[in-house]
Each structure stands twice: as C-alpha cells, then as structure tokens.
Specification:
The complex is a heterotrimer. By secondary structure, chain A is an all-alpha fold. Chain A has helices spanning 16-19, 24-32, 34-51, 53-56, 87-123, 125-140, 143-154, 158-185, 188-196, 200-236, 247-256, 269-293, and one strand at 308-309. Chain A contains twelve helices and one strand. In chain A, helix 5 packs antiparallel against helix 6, helix 5 crosses helix 11 (247-256) and helix 7 (143-154) crosses helix 8. The longest helix of chain A has 37 residues, at 87-123. The relative contact order of chain A is 0.14. Helix content of chain B is 27%, strand content 23%. The longest helix of chain B is centred in the middle third of the chain and has 18 residues, at 186-203. In chain B, strand 1 and strand 2 (22-33) form a beta hairpin. Chain B is globular, with a radius of gyration of 21 Å. Chain C has helices at 12-18, 41-45, 79-86, 113-118, 136-147, 153-166, 185-197, 215-231, 243-249, 267-272, 277-285; strands at residues 26-36, 52-63, 68-72, 94-99, 102-103, 119-122, 203-207, 235-240, 252-257, 260-266, 346-347. In chain C, strand 9 (252-257) and strand 10 (260-266) form a beta hairpin. In chain C, helix 5 crosses helix 6. The longest helix of chain C is centred in the middle third of the chain and has 17 residues, at 215-231. Classes of the chains: A mainly alpha, B alpha/beta, C alpha/beta. At the B-C interface, helix 5, helix 6, helix 7, helix 8 and helix 9 of B face helix 8, helix 9 and helix 11 of C.
Chain lengths: 321, 325, 352
C-alpha cells in the first residue's frame, strides 16, 4: 500500500527555512534578513582590508610623511598621527592585528568552551557538576585584573593576548553549548540511535554536533565581536603587544601622546569607529542567525492587530483562490 | 423552530502564507448548537476543526482573514470582526484549548487564575469573586480549598478540570472544548466527559466538542459534524452517522476505529488530505474514496440535506438507486 | 491469530522440558525497577525516610515468537519503564530478563551490541523519531553501518530498498532521498520501522506506535506490525493505553496497575471475560464507537496514586469497588481462577 507524497494542507513548516538541507542554512538566513546581509558585508569589508592591508596601504607605516598630528587633507584623508605617519595606513594595519587577535581568541575559546559544554551536557552527572564548577570559577574571576596579572607575569606578545582573551570568553560558550546539548541529547532520534546500538562517538558527531552547529556559529560570530572589543580594551590599557599596531594601540598612543589637547580628533575617532563598526557587523549577523534558529521568538498571536474580516463574502474567497 | 443558541453560517478562514498565496483552512462550514446540547466536531489533523472554533472566538492571528456569520441568539457577532466579538468572548462563548492543562500560569494560584477573568470582564470582584471561584472549583470536582494551590501541585486530570473552571468563570452560554481529554488516561477521560455532560445538563451549557476521537463523540454527543479538508462533509445525529452514514469518509472513519468487542477488520484510508493552498475543483475526498466515480473528479459536492437533520456532501446521494457506484 | 500458541493447559515449564525450541523469545521474571527519590540536604539531616519510586514492582511475563503481547495500562503503571528496561535503556534494580535463553541483565554494556541488533524499539512520536538532518537513506543506513550489515554499498542499498518495501513504502525509490519534514506522520513511522527491519530483529518493542497518528493511518501501521509478527515470526511487545487497539491486534494482553500486572491472558478472554476489578472498570469506561452501545461506565474516583506511595496489601484496594477488609493486608499474586476459560488467563485478585 503506497501513500502519495503530499504536503498536508496545514502542515506547512515555518521552520522549513532552517531545515532546508545543509550548507543552505546560512545562505537562507542572509537571504531572508537584510540585517544579516549588512552585517556580513561590514565584516567582510574589514576582513578584506586586513588581508590585503599590505597592498592597500597608501603609505608605509614606519615612514614619517608629514608633521606631527597633521590634519586630514587630500593626500591624507584621515590625517597623520603623532609620528607624522598616515592614519589611513595605520588603521588598515591595525585592522589586521585586531581581527587576527579577535578571530584567533574566538577560535580558542570555541574549542575550549565548546568542548567543555559538550562534555558537560552530554555526559551529565559528575562530569557536568565538575566542569560547571570550573566554568563558574572562571566566570566569577574579574576580567580585567586577571588580564593584567597574566600580562604582567607573562609579558607582552600577541599570542599571550590571544590566550588571555580566550580565557575570558570560553565560559559563555560553554554554558550555551551545554544547555543545547542537554536538550538535543533527550531528543527521540538520539535515543533511537542509541537503542540501535550507536556508540557515544557516533551520537555526538553525527546527531548532536550537527544540531548545535548553527547555534555554535551564531555564538562564534557574537564572540568575535566581544574578542575584538577585549583586544581593543586591553591594548588601550597597554597590555597588548607594543611592537604591533592594532586599533587598540592606536587609541592608546593617541591618549598617551596628548592627541586630545592637540585637537587631533582624527587620531582617535576613526579607530573607535572601526571597532564599533566591526562589532556591530558581527552582532547583526550573529543575532540574525540566532533569530533564524528560534522561530518561536516571533510573537504572532500577541500582536495588537487582529484577524481581518472579509465583507461581503462573494464567491468563495477574497483572493483568486 | 427556536433560534439555536449558537449558529455558524458559511464560515471561511484564509491564512496568508509567508511565501505568498493563501491557505483556505475553513471552507464554508455551517453548524448550530442548542442550549444544553452536546455537539461534536470531528476530524483528523488539518481538517480545520480547531481553526473553526478559534474563528468563532475571534482568536485568529493577524495573518488570518475570516468570512461568514457567527450568530449568538440570532445576532451576528462577527459583523464587525474583533469589535463585535470582544464583548461576547468569555462572557457568552468560552473555550478550553487543546493542552490547556499544560498552559496554566505556573506562578499564580489556581484560584487567582479563575478570579482573573471574572475581574477582567467585570463579572465579579474581590471576595465575591473568590467565593464564586471556590464554587466553580467544587462544580468541576475540585475541593474549594485547592484554590490556594499552584498548578504543579495538581495532577493532569485536576489541571484539566481547573482549565474548565477558568473557562466557565464568566458563566458563558456556549463552551467550545478542543480535544479536552486527548492527553488524559481513559479513566480520567471518563471523569471529565461525565463532568462535561453534567455541566451541559445542569447549566444548560451548549457544548461543542472538537476531537479526532470518534468513540468519545459517540458516547458524549447527540449530534456531530464530520470535517474533511476544511469543510463539513456530513452532519447529523450520532446514531445516524454510525448506522447509516451518507458520506464514504464518515463510514471509513468509523471503520478505521477499532471496537473493543467487534471482530471486523480495522481499515486504514490510503493517501493524505489535499493541500488547502490551492483551489479544489473536485470532491476533496475523491482520491482516497472507495466509491468514487466520474462526477466526483470534476465537480465539488455541496453539503445538502439527505434526511431529517442529516446533511452530507457526496454525489452518491444524488445517484438514483441502480446507477453505477 | 494465535494458533501457534501452546494449547491451554500446558505450562511453560512443561514445554521447556519438551524441547528448547518451545522456549519463549523473551522471559521477564520478577522485574523490579526502583528509583530513589532525591532528598534535599535538609531532609537528609532531618532523617526523613528515603522514598522510592516503585516504577516496576515485580513483573513476570513472556513473549513468544510470532506473538504480539500488549502491555496495557494508564500513565504511571510502569509499562513504558518495563519496555525500556527490557531493552536495557533503563537499568533494572533486580529480576531477570531472558532473551533467547540468555539473561541480558547480566550482560556487560560492551557486549550488548549483539542484543541491540536482535531487539528493536519503535518510538511513539514519529515527528521526533527521525533526525531532521538525515535523508531517509541515511536513517536506514545508520543501523547497517553500526552493526556492519551488508558487504559493500550496493548490497546495503538493496537491503535498504527491501526494508522500505517491507515497511509498506513502495516504490522505495520515491522515498530514499526525502527529508523527514517532507513525509507524513504515518510515512515517518514506517521509515523508523524500516530502519529497525534492516537488522532483521527477533523482538520488536512498539511504544504507543500509533497514538500520535491520525485514525485513518493507524490500522495500516498496526497491520504492518501484525504482518511482521506472522510472516517474520517476530515477537512484538506493544505498549499502549488504548484497550480497543490491544483487543484487536494483540494475541495476549497484560493489564498493568502501579507497577504490577494485575491481569493477563489471551486478548479476547481478557476483554470479554475480565476478572480483575480494575480491568472491569477500565473496560467499562473505554468509549465505544457505536452510540447505541452506551454501557453504564464504572468510573473510579480519584486518580492512580503516585508510585512512591504504593498502598499496602492489594495496591488497588483504595479505589476498588469491591474491596474487602482482607484486601488491605494481602498482596495478591497472579493465578488462574475457575471463572476463567483457560489456564493462560490469570488475575491478581483474591476475590477471583
């Protein structure tokens, strides 16, 4: 007895957008939500600048090309800093370090946080309790003093900076991933696979991980935003790598070398704007992905608008149906 | 003939789909209920029964369009849409939702949740309301003292009774119950059904029981309407529906329900219901019908009276005896 | 439906003596599943006595090859826990579960793989049973990959198509590349069944296999299970709360109440000649589809007590309409009474 394949009338799936095969998910999110597209464009813009900074920089960042705090002009759109170096070039160079640190720290945080969250959520019991206690301790430690201590003890350096930021970030991911893994683990299809004889490794990699994948992506994007902000903040406080240029060090130099009293707003504001733009871009993209994963966030029935009344009823309907 | 308490005429509901187009969820249903009567609205998932009663309550989302008339004691309360329905919602027509027992506010006492609609609709307030709430609880079989308890302290059956009490808080004349016993054990179900029947008799409440469970309707209701693909395909007294159905779907639906003592084979109906986002110009049941013939594939049958208080939408009823089946 | 059962009057023990081939596929003996209730620290300090949830409280029954046994009862009676502990998805506290002679409660976890191939479970919710990211082909290939069934891709493909056909999805090519959300509930359930069939199991445990499906689709799935019982000689254990379904499709019914089987026997016997007061009450309140058949229901007051507080003596006595004084102290065992027509029919009531 065969049954014809037909979509049942009212069973049209609102979440079909999310379930539309693999790989298509992110593309679907971007297509559906303009905010995601905007966010992605902004982030990509800065990524391209960072990657191609060596070729895009109009001037060399080690050569003085004008007076100290030279104002913006036709040759130097964003003016010069206290060393007479072109700001535009500095910002492009800074993009490189800021983004590298941001992405690298996020990657490390994802690996640690994702791993901890996965183990705690999947195995539960004592493993969960122990791992969550550790996570709580890290959550509770105040970020800044920890960063200062580590930087002081270890000394400056990009890798140290990445490590410090990763330590600050992994706990948020761990909690979110743990919650989601716990939910997915209780799903019937996971239980069914286990009853078929699947081992834990199969259950985790083939069933649980793909389900939390989109959430992990959303969380990663949002974490990048925080990582970049943290890098800027730490560099601004002088805890970064003094041999490298990042947006944070640009701001640090500007403040240390009296850019404000010199009235050189171009040494401060553009760097701040760059950081803000990248963070905003990450947020737009990350939020859009999160929203797509949670169709119930749409409050359809709590709207103050009501159903429409069709008057008079001619034929069978208001439309060509 | 007396005016029925609730009469629904030619009700249509369309839903706007997110990718364009519309879903014609309810396609011209008409039914009526008298005071003290229990009527069943029966059908499988997607047939439009829940949407129909939500439309009667005016509780459809903004992407819904509604047409038709809903007459309460002869007055069309759907005349101006939300504006004319609101005064009657809960005070004249109340509804117990599907899974209501799981939708109780967990941080408010049960008593509060019964008093709340009373105060909102200015039926009673303060001490008088609390006393009335206690009486309501007793009426549904819960001790009045339990008003101080929270939903999680109640069992499933008691929560369903509490949901019933909430629906009756403003003393409505009509009660729409959507799958009131589906998630309950058979013994608790019997208790709740007994309660519903008692309330209909004692309070003169008109009850519309929406369910997919035919035996429940057979035991509790005097009349029923069978829905398929958004429309009523047969309506009449329960006895008639079972012993002399005039629509193949009704007959097959009964045949698909196992009987405790019967030995007949239980059948299943192959295929799935049609999509409702497209115009259907034939009998919607025809692809799955065991007695379909040529006319069924080109002309959509209309719900017609075939006997006293018995309507059916099937071309077979037009075919004189002896014609090919 | 039950011609291959041992003739009435033959006990299982005698059959065992006659030859190992008559041994039941599944033998559950004195199964107990007890969970301790967590106490808060305050309660522990106050020496509040520990409480236990007696989910399964001494259950004994068999499932033979080519037979469908229905485990029937209301929520909290322990039927689902029994089914899960039979498959070692839940650890039992004591008792034996013999599958083809071997007590699988004693099997270490690592060695359970073989058992998992021979005993399968079908879950209640077809909308959650399938991984939404897997196409039908992947869902059905998964058990083959886990157990190393089929040598090579083409043979596995053949076995997959075969399983789909057996599960009633023809032509199978139409379904292999579908995602679950493109299938109806009945079709999804058939896919889940096919995924189990591909391993050629001996025992199928069906946990409320049709309760979430539309009425018009249920008979098809149940007929499929019945067909498997007949043609593949599978033993099927069906968990259900629906007595009508059990009466129609099962060979034997076991009625559970608060962790115990209170009545069991051939399906028609239990339904037409119920002896235990609980079974009688339960059958009387099942709605009948014929509106003329409105028997006066015997509605029991209250609800099934929490398995933490199992009443002393007969566990049903507080709600029993015919309970006597001695019911408060005597815990009845299953036995056959003169009012029954066959020795296979047993009830746990001292008044019977």
């Amino acid at each position: 007895m065969s049954e014809t394949l037909q979509l049942q009338g009212e069973k049209l799936d609102e979440t079909a957008a999310v379930k539309r095969g693999r790989g298509g998910f992110l593309w679907q999110v971007i297509k559906d939500r303009p905010s995601a597209a905007i966010g992605l464009v902004i982030v990509l813009f800065f990524v391209v600048i960072a990657v191609f900074s060596h070729w895009l920089e109009p001037y060399d960042i080690h050569t003085q090309v004008g007076p100290v705090y030279g104002p913006p002009s036709i040759h130097h759109w964003l003016g010069l800093d206290d060393g007479g170096i072109d700001m535009t070039s500095l910002l492009m160079e800074g993009a490189k370090v800021s983004l590298i640190v941001g992405f690298a720290a996020t990657f490390v945080a994802m690996v640690i946080g994702g791993g901890v969250g996965m183990l705690a959520g999947y195995f539960g019991g004592t493993t969960d309790i122990v791992l969550m206690r550790i996570t709580d301790y890290f959550l509770v430690i105040p970020d800044l003093p920890l960063a200062i201590v580590i930087a002081a003890v270890w000394g400056p350096g990009l890798s140290h900076l990445i490590f410090v930021i990763a330590i600050l970030l992994w706990t948020g991911t761990a909690r979110i991933i743990r919650a989601q893994v716990k939910t997915v683990r209780e799903r019937v299809y996971v239980k069914r696979s286990r009853s078929l004889g699947a081992r834990n490794s199969r259950l985790v990699f083939r069933h649980v991980l793909p389900q939390i994948g989109p959430l992990l992506i959303a969380n990663t994007v949002l974490t990048v935003a925080i990582a970049i902000f943290d890098e800027t903040a730490l560099s601004f406080l002088g805890l970064g790598d003094p041999t490298r240029v990042s947006w944070g060090t640009i701001l640090e130099h500007a403040f240390d070398r009296t850019a404000i009293s010199a009235g050189a707003w171009w040494a401060i504001v553009p760097a701040g704007i760059c950081v803000s733009l990248v963070i905003m871009g990450c947020y737009l993209l990350g939020q859009a992905i999160e929203d797509a994963l949670n169709p119930r966030l749409k409050v359809a029935h709590l709207s103050i608008k009501h159903f429409r009344l069709v008057r008079p009823l001619v034929g069978r309907g208001p439309d060509a149906l | 003939m007396t005016t029925p308490l609730l009469e629904v005429r030619d009700l249509h509901v369309w839903f706007d789909l997110s990718h364009g187009g519309q879903l014609h969820a309810v396609q011209g249903t008409s039914f009526s209920v008298e005071a003290g009567e229990r009527m069943g609205l029966v059908g499988e998932s997607g047939c439009g029964k829940t949407t129909s009663i939500l439309a009667v309550m005016g509780l459809l989302p903004p992407n819904a369009s509604v047409g038709g008339q809903v007459l309460l004691n002869g007055v069309d309360i759907m005349a101006e849409g939300e504006d004319t329905i609101r005064p009657h919602r809960w005070t004249d027509i109340a509804m117990v939702f599907q899974g209501a027992m799981n939708a109780l506010n967990p941080v408010k006492t049960v008593g509060f949740q019964i008093v709340e609609p009373m105060e909102l609709h200015e039926v009673a307030e303060g001490t008088a309301a609390r006393r009335a709430a206690g009486e309501l609880l007793e009426m549904v079989g819960i001790p009045a003292a339990a008003a101080e308890r929270y939903p999680h302290e109640f069992s499933g059956g008691m929560r369903q009774r509490a949901a019933l009490a909430m629906a009756l808080a403003c003393q409505p004349k009509v009660l729409l119950a959507d799958e009131p016993t589906t998630a309950l054990d058979v013994m608790v179900q019997a208790q709740i059904l007994e309660l519903l029947s008692g309330l209909a008799n004692d309070l003169g409440l008109a009850v519309v029981l929406v369910t997919h469970d035919l035996p429940v309707v057979a035991q509790v209701c005097s009349r029923a309407a069978v829905m398929y693909a958004g429309e009523i395909v047969e309506a009449g007294p329960m006895d008639t529906l079972f012993h002399s159905p005039r629509h193949p779907y009704t007959r097959l639906l009964f045949a698909a329900t196992p009987d405790l003592y019967g030995d007949e084979d239980v059948v299943s109906i192959a295929g799935t219901p049609p999509r409702l986002d497209r115009q259907i110009d034939q009998c919607p049941f025809s692809p799955r019908c065991d007695r379909t013939f040529d006319r069924c594939k080109v002309e959509r049958p209309v719900l017609k009276t075939v006997d006293v208080d018995h309507r059916a939408a099937c071309h077979l009823n037009d075919v004189p005896a002896g014609a090919p089946a | 439906m039950s011609e291959d059962l041992a003739t009435p009057g033959t006990s299982v023990a005698a059959a065992q003596g006659a030859g190992a081939t008559d041994e039941p596929l599944l033998q559950v003996q004195d199964l107990y599943v007890t969970y301790p209730v967590r106490r808060s620290m305050v309660q522990a300090l106050r020496r509040v006595p520990k409480q236990y949830v007696r989910a399964v409280d001494g259950v004994t029954f068999d499932v033979r090859k080519g037979e469908m046994v229905a485990l029937v009862g209301e929520s909290g009676c322990g039927k689902t826990t029994t089914a899960q502990s039979i498959l070692r998805l839940v650890e039992s506290s004591s008792g034996s579960i013999r599958f083809q002679g071997t007590d699988i409660t004693k099997t270490p976890n690592k060695a359970l793989r073989g058992y998992r191939r021979r005993a399968q479970i079908i879950y209640q919710d077809p909308y959650e049973s399938l991984d939404p990211r897997f196409r039908v082909r992947t869902t059905i290939e998964e058990p083959m990959t886990i157990h190393g069934v089929g040598k090579g891709g083409s043979e596995r493909h053949r076995l997959m198509l075969q399983a789909l056909v057996r599960a009633g999805l023809t032509p199978p090519e139409l379904y292999v590349d579908r995602y679950p959300h493109e299938l109806s509930g009945g079709q999804r359930q058939r896919v889940a069944i096919a995924a189990s069939l591909v391993l050629d199991p001996d025992l199928l445990v069906a946990d409320e296999p049709v309760s979430m499906l539309d009425v018009s689709v249920r008979a098809g799935i149940l007929a499929l299970l019945d067909g498997l019982r007949r043609d593949a000689n599978m033993g099927v254990l069906m968990i259900t709360h629906d007595l009508s379904t059990a009466a129609h499709f099962a060979d034997r019914i076991a009625v559970m109440y608060l962790g115990r089987i209170v009545e069991e026997g051939p399906a028609k016997q239990v339904v037409r000649n119920p002896q235990h007061p609980y079974t009688r009450a339960l059958l009387s309140v099942v709605p009948k589809r014929d509106p003329r058949n409105r028997t006066a229901p015997q509605i029991l007051r209250g609800e099934t007590p929490n398995p933490v507080n199992v009443p002393a003596g007969c566990r049903f006595h507080p709600r029993c309409p015919v309970a006597e004084e001695r019911c408060k102290t005597i815990d009845p065992q299953l036995h056959t009474a003169p009012t029954m027509q066959t020795e296979e029919h047993q009830a746990a009531c001292i008044l019977v």
